[in-house]
Amino acid sequence: MYFPISEEEKMIQMMVAQFADREVAPGAAARDESGEFPRELVAKMAQLGLCGMMVPPAYGGSGVGAVAYALAVMEVSRACASTAVTMCVTNLSCEPLLAFGTEEQKKRLLAPVASGKILGAFALTEPEAGSNLTEISCRAEKKGGRYLLRGTKVFITNGAYAGLTLVLARTGEGNRGLTAFAVEKGLPGFKVGREIHKMGLRASNTVEILLEDCEVPEANRLGGEGEGLRAVTNALYSGRIGIAAQATGLLQACLDEATKYARERRQFKRPLSGHQAIQWMIAEIATGLESARLLTLSAAALKQRGEPFAREASMAKLFASETLIRSAYQALQIHGGYGYTREFPIERIYRDARVTTIYEGTSEVQKMVIARETLKET
Q1: C-alpha distances in angstroms, 11 versus 5, 7, 17, 250, 372?
Q2: What value does the mean pLDDT of the chain take?
Q3: Average pLDDT of the residues in 151-180
Q4: Catalytic residue among 75, 128, 360, 364
């Protein structure tokens, strides 16, 4: 693959690749089995500057940019998708604070997340509001110098461990009636609900968040009332680059496992890799991987240059995730019956892959965005 990345970005990629091989990969299967949250790995990622990669150093981040971030997510995902999504959500939660926070909020609220002192979470989804954020029903009522938040949020990644959760709540009606709040752990009325047990990403924490007259200071409101949708929209586009990078890293894992097994396993008196049917599957996985990587890095480069990137982020997310689903199927098929057992990593990779076409906007939502942005241009 050729993509013009800087020497600094290459060095970051190499550093994260070594970290992924040495620290992340060895315990991935055990964490998946037990569902244990990777606390120690999170602390090590913070030391490496992987929690606020697109946040300037003045606010606690490493400020290395969107391309380096995408490369880092790919490497961590290749080793363990659960660890990668924990990293992705913390980086994602920094974006609205960076874009809409006051100077005081950036120093008080953003810096601890970007530096990795605390984890971040993003609380948008509700039982009756997923892809359509305008259906959010969580209410925020102003009482003096504070807001009382009431409602339930679901599928909140990092929710039980986050020190800061960004919450979108309704202060009025319609699209302009949504407001964003930075909710700190320990505020009265903020409760972690049940843990959600998932098919894959089992070592990634996912919970319900209960807001029972949660008292949030007015000083923790991001932007003005009614600016919440604008505050989170750009972050969601960035989140799609992160999931595209995650899917690309998992594609690399599919290729690694498929080629390794095909070389070692013998059938009909020769290695599987000598059979054309297997070769063609490996060729398709390899081609999908290179295409996904280029689309993802291209979208990240646009973001890094400050250019519009919504369409390209959706293209990258759509292609990488859908290609991953097919490639994980092919990689498991190459393993045959052994691929269906937990003796080989492809079984975990197959389960982890499935959600990439769903979260951070389903494939159907990505197609809507791509069509909308393309029709605008033409």
Answers
A1: 10, 6, 10, 21, 37
A2: 95
A3: 94
A4: 360
The answer to whether the CB of 129 falls within 8 A of the CB of 137 is yes
Report the CATH number at residue 267: 1.20.140.10
- CATH at 162: 2.40.110.10
- For 349-361, the pLDDT digits (tens) are 999 999 999 999 9
Residue 152 three-state SS: strand
Q: Does residue 1 sit within a domain?
A: no
- Mode of pairing for the β-strands spanning 139-143 and 146-157: antiparallel
Cα 61 to Cα 41: distance, rounded to the nearest angstrom: 18
Active site (annotated) includes residue 218: no
Write the pLDDT tens digit of every residue in 291-312.
999 999 999 999 999 999 999 9
Judged by DSSP in three states, 153 sits in strand
In a domain, 2, yes or no: no
SS3 content of the chain, % helix, strand, coil (to 5): 60, 15, 25
- Beta carbons within 10 angstroms of residue 376's beta carbon: 9
| DSSP E strands, 43-200 | 119-123, 139-143, 146-157, 162-170, 178-184, 190-195
Q: Evaluate if residue 1 carries a pLDDT over 70.
A: no
Q: How do strand 119-123 and strand 162-170 relate by DSSP bridges? A: parallel
